[in-house]
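Bug #2210: token dump truncated for DDE Tnp4 domain-containing protein?
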Amino acid sequence: MDRRKKIILAAVLHLRRNPCRRRRYWVHPIRRSRERYGEFHRLVKELRLDNELFQQYFRMPRELYLATGDSFCTIAFSYRVGLSTVCMVVKEVSAAIWEELQPEFMPAPSMDDWLTIAEGFRHRWNFPNCVGSVDGKHVVLQAPANSGSQFFNYKGTFSIVLLAVVDAQYLFRVVDVGGYGRTSDGGILWNSVFGEGLRDGTLDLPQDAVIPGSEPRGRMPFVFVGDEAFPLRRDLMRPYPGPHGPGEKRAFNYRLSRARLVVECAFGILSSQWRMYKRVMAVSPTTAETCVRATCVLHNFLRVLTLRRRQYQNQPYTSSRRPGDPDDCLRGVSRLGSNNATREALGVRAQFTSYFSEEGAVPWQIHR
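Reproduced locally. Full output below:
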């Protein structure tokens, strides 16, 4: 008897000894009654009659997309559908949201876009020639199967990393999702498409320009701002390491941290709006990436609508914090990097340091 016949015979004997368990239900009685008792057909219809309650429950106006942040199991029971159906719907809808909204609400920035972003940072955050605030956010996951320590981060949880570039209006301009939690922010930047564009000079950044009011200094480059986890580059500024007393370095660190706070605030808004960030996501890393991208572009969608509404009502958008207000969340930075900077990058930082302590100084920075 050849090997193929032996395999077939063994399979037949196994089926005879272990007959397949007959399904009890093709559709469970609880799910058959979804049109009468399911959440979509009862609660959601009632919430649509009250905009305020709908906003409280779904975190968005009733005419827009909804998201509760509940577990897939809870959603399956609430809507009386199968767990696999919920998994499929969430993944497909999240992907569709990104594909539909990304071209309009998170396109790749052009040179004109970078110039507009720089104007926003100069007027609102007193940091000229800044084209974005960069940072990474850990999105906590349930430990993926057979992943070893790849997703295990320094906080003692499992996560993927959302690397983002944010403008002065808290809008995400570039996002890179899916980096391993064990990788540092600097490593995530290095391995990302954005980091590759930064190294290759393919981000379409503007040419060096003179900062208004400091013509004698000549042209200065446009830069991104980040914390100590990132390398110091000609186009990426980070604070001076270690504690510093009153002086130019302290003023520079304060001004850079004030601009860098924008990305921290954007992450805070994102976490408050989308409750999935408040809990451990019990999904695969691939599904988590899709959901994170969807929430980022929805964040932009909602903020753009708000900004347009304010412009229509002739209400200029202003920061909730006055320039002289305390910046408690900017103090106590603890992460230190061991990055080797080039002489040119050190020179650019020195130029900004001198500018912030001379013609670019602001009255309230001496109290920081």
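Output looks complete on our side. The chain has two domains: 28-86, 106-319+336-367. Marking as cannot-reproduce; reopen if the truncation happens again.
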